[in-house]
Amino acid sequence: MPLTGDIQTFSLSAVGRLLHQEKKTGILKVSSRDRETNIYFRAGDIVFISGALAAELSLGALLKEKKLVTEKEIADSLDSARQENKRLGVVLMENGLVSQEKLVQMLNYQFKEAISAVLTWREGTFVYKDGLNGFVEDIRLKLDPIRLVAEAEKWKAYRSLIPNDHVVFQIKEGALQSDSFSTEGALRVMLLIDGKRDVARIIAETGLPRLGVYRALTALAEQNAIELSGAAQSSQPNSLPDLTSVLQYYLPTIHDITDIMARALGEKKAHSMLARSLKRSLEDGNLVEAVGCGGNPEENTRRIYDHLQKQGRAVNGRQLEWDFKKAIFFLLQEEYLVLGFKAVRDTIGRLLESSEHRNGGAQEIDGRMLPFYRALAQDEGYFKGRKNVSDTSGLPEPKQDSHDDPEPGMERVGGAAIIALYSRIIQTVMQEMEAEIGSKAEVLLSAIIEKSEYHDKFLSQYRVGDDVQTNVSRIRDHISREGYRLGKSSFISGFQQTLTELLLAKKQLLGKKSASATVRNIETFLSTIAREEFRPLAMNLMTTIKRII
What we know:
Layout: E1 3-6, H1 12-21, E2 26-32, E3 35-42, E4 45-51, H2 55-65, H3 71-84, H4 88-94, H5 100-118, E5 125-130, H6 145-161, E6 169-171, H7 184-190, H8 199-206, H9 210-222, E7 226-228, H10 230-235, H11 244-265, H12 267-282, H13 285-292, H14 297-311, H15 317-339, H16 341-355, H17 360-378, E8 399-400, H18 415-437, H19 440-450, H20 468-482, E9 484-485, H21 488-510, H22 512-527, H23 535-548
Parallel strand pairs: 8-9
Antiparallel strand pairs: 1-5, 2-3, 2-5, 3-4, 6-7
Helix pairs in contact: 2-5, 2-18, 3-4, 3-18, 5-6, 6-9, 7-9, 11-12, 11-14, 11-15, 12-13, 12-15, 13-14, 15-16, 16-17, 18-19, 18-20, 18-21, 19-21, 21-22, 21-23, 22-23
């Protein structure tokens, strides 16, 4: 019988420990938002990992960075691997380019880093099934999950020092005279610390995995060799704008609506509807968790502030109000779909009654929200999709981009998920191009982004070398600061144009055969997407890029 669960209630650490102790042989599939990874166990040991981490290409980058193979050798081996349906490592070993001993060493390092990162995911689901489904290891690896769990715990210490990839460090006076660096990685990182480069740039320039750079920075901090730069400290949001009145208005309101629904539908059903509403409006898993959890408003307010501060998020009160307004609408829409318009009107009536007893900042927000409530109570068309919530008077919607027509079939997909999808595809294309033309690929991508009509709106904030969450956070913060309200179509158009230009450039530089191979890889990736709501976007994307070839 398959073992399934939610990693918030049954941690991956515990799952890994259980599978190791019982010497299980099978596949553990872990999914978290837009990420999915398969971990292969044999007799309780981890022998392989595949999925969202793009292990094959990462291996090539790692071997190239260690100067064990050349760019041309990687490119030729990748072509052979695809034609012969073999893994990259096997082809490299068969051609005598890398010894088995060295390959095993690199794979061990790569998988340790990848699995340690997976173990730190804070939300998602897992499914374990016995049997390897025909998988046979070409190269034998044995990784102890217990040791990997211990390694993952170190992330907590790393995050206390490095809350995000945009902090900047400087060398302490006299540290350059020290020869006591704990690792070669620490020394390489040290050489790039200049009080100007942020952590993201150091990761890109060293070629080390993010976990490796974090480990090196932590080691240097423990040796008292580095500190946050003065400029960085002054630029960090040491204090967030006072959002207390916003949070103490909307949090109780959202929970009041949920309580009303719970009395009619049961607590479990109501909280499930709340979770869906928050995910549709906030698009930040950790923030959704903070808003949706129980506890008093003061405790939840503190939790939200802590999360925003830790992420280094620039927060706009107007934007946050709009997000909460959407959350309330989506929650009322959930109630409408199950209980009908009369139940919604009764709920809104209770909200209007509550407003009569408010004062101070809450009264001011009420002045913006009351027209919104009344409009919803008077016209069922908002819940049937005939009218847009932004048409209601009261709270104004932030600055709107002109390209905001909804994508057919994409109603349940958030902007963050769209960014994540395209980011993964562009990263794959870039990794292939870097294997063929080196650093010219990044220069080419920068030029494409710079001339895009979406450069100022959000593409200027995209970094191909950063992980999905970092890109999503940076783009969201930029949009919030500038006051834009970009629709899904804007993200789709911007990224699709970028991808199209990138593939055209590859075709011109490297020929039709190379571009066609990339398109086939994209098509293979899109075919593995399980989420039904992504299908219209995937079909549109494939139609567009196939025209290029």
